[in-house]
């Protein structure tokens, strides 16, 4: 293996994994260490990599030819695509050790784990040899000193951890996309998952909740105090907030809605009134809406806003005032490709398209799917009986409701092909 003899494992989190041909096959998410019956440091046997479709697999160190903070390169051979499952005598280093409260001997100095290094012996065996520990200090204005000490000098690395912080684990997870972070949270024990989720800021937690199975959403929300839960719901898209609240008993729904700001709660209340499985129940009530006298340049500037999802930003809906749902009379929509072809000073009223009948709030999901597929659309308007725009159904809304209800659940994720190739050597 072409690699330094000491590797700090938190620095590997998120590093790309490449096959011998230079194609990326995944990203490192953790390291697996095997506990020993003696006091010797645990032996590192491999890495956990996340593959497409959120599957995590085991990569034996024996099959890795190069490892550093920029890339992990695999040697020739086939991969075992079975989903990784930790064995009873194994330790997930980053998940279980970062932020753990420990004491450094001989003086018993308290601190928390910032990173853990694996080292290679002359015989080629890798073990957890050193621990980066930050001292605990009572001063709020200064961080404690950082010490790198031998594994044997640190007490508290084994057994059930006491209540601990989240800063170092969050630092490892901070660059993940919301869907990947949601996937990582599902690997944590429930108490640790709730602890880490609560440490996220409201906007980040809202994005992550939208990517979790309903069961985990409800459990995380229940672990927050009600005021914080209401603030997180305010940061969610109204349709996602309505989906989450629909999993709660009606009295709890009412409490949280009452704690939300009225302008944030009102669209969620409205979405909760629609019959499940209809356009009203799956639509977003906040598509991009502009008046007919807005210019093409104004529309392009609007859809460039970074908080908009690709499906929402793919078109602009044109209606009479007011511009919030329910709007004035709906006039039509303009796709972003049309906007790119038109002079910036032209008005939207002159390029609007209205040759496709909008959906009604009561349109059932199968009909929505057929019509979006027929016209190759990523979004369709939803209007009420007074021809007012009340929302838009996007392709991601449709997919989310067409897939099995538990499709986000790691335990119910699709299994690898039964004929998947096997990896020689240790499995995880």
From TrEMBL:
Keyword annotations from UniProtKB, A to Z: CBS domain
SMART domains registered for this protein in UniProt: CBS, MgtE_N
One GO CC annotation: membrane
Domain CBS: 283-351, 352-410
The keyword Hydrolase is annotated on this UniProt entry: no
Organism listed in the record: Micromonospora peucetia
InterPro entries registered for this protein in UniProt: CBS_dom (IPR000644), CBS_dom_sf (IPR046342), Mg_transptr_MgtE_intracell_dom (IPR006668), MgtE_N_sf (IPR038076), MgtE_transporter (IPR006669), SH3_actinomycetes (IPR058838)
Recorded GO MF terms: magnesium ion transmembrane transporter activity
Record SUPFAM superfamilies: CBS-domain pair (SSF54631), MgtE N-terminal domain-like (SSF158791)
UniProt xrefs under Pfam families: CBS, MgtE_N, SH3_actinomycetes
Name of the protein in question: CBS domain-containing protein
């Amino acid at each position: 293996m072409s690699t330094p003899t000491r590797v700090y494992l938190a620095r590997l989190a998120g590093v790309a994994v490449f096959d011998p041909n230079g194609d990326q096959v995944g990203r490192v998410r953790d390291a697996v260490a095997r506990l020993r019956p003696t006091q010797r440091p645990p032996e590192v046997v491999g890495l956990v990599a996340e593959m497409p479709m959120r599957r995590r697999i085991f990569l034996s160190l024996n099959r890795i030819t190069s490892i550093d903070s920029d890339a992990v390169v695999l040697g020739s051979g086939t991969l075992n695509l079975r989903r990784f499952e930790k064995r009873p005598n194994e330790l997930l280093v980053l998940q279980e050790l970062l932020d753990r409260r420990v004491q450094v001997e001989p003086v018993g100095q308290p601190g928390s784990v910032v990173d853990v290094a694996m080292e290679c012996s002359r015989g080629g065996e890798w073990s957890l040899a050193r621990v980066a520990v930050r001292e605990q200090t009572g001063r709020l204005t200064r961080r404690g000193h950082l010490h790198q000490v031998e594994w044997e000098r640190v007490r508290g690395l084994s057994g059930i951890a006491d209540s601990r912080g989240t800063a170092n684990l969050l630092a490892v997870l901070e660059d993940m996309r919301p869907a990947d972070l949601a996937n990582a949270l599902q690997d944590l024990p429930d108490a640790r998952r709730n602890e880490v989720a609560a440490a996220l800021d409201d906007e980040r937690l809202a994005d992550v909740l939208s990517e979790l199975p309903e069961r985990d959403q409800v459990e995380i929300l229940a672990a927050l105090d009600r005021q914080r839960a209401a603030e997180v719901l305010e940061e969610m898209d109204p349709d996602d907030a309505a989906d989450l609240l629909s999993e709660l008993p009606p009295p709890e729904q009412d409490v949280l809605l009452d704690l939300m700001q009225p302008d944030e709660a009102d669209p969620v209340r409205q979405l909760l009134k629609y019959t499940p499985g209809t356009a009203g129940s799956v639509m977003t009530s906040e598509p991009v809406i502009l008046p007919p006298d807005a210019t093409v340049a104004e529309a392009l500037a609007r859809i460039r806003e970074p908080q908009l999802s690709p499906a929402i930003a793919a078109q602009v809906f044109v209606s009479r005032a007011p511009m919030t749902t329910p709007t004035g009379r709906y006039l039509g929509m303009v796709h972003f490709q049309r906007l790119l072809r038109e002079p910036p000073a032209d008005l939207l009223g002159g390029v609007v398209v209205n040759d496709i009948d909008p959906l009604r709030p009561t349109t059932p999901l199968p009909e929505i799917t057929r019509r979006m597929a027929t016209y190759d659309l990523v979004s369709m308007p939803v209007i009420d009986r007074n021809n007012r725009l009340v929302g838009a159904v996007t392709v991601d809304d449709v997919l989310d409701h067409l897939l099995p209800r538990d499709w986000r659940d790691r335990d119910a994720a699709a299994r690898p092909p039964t004929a998947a190739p096997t990896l020689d050597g240790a499995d995880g």
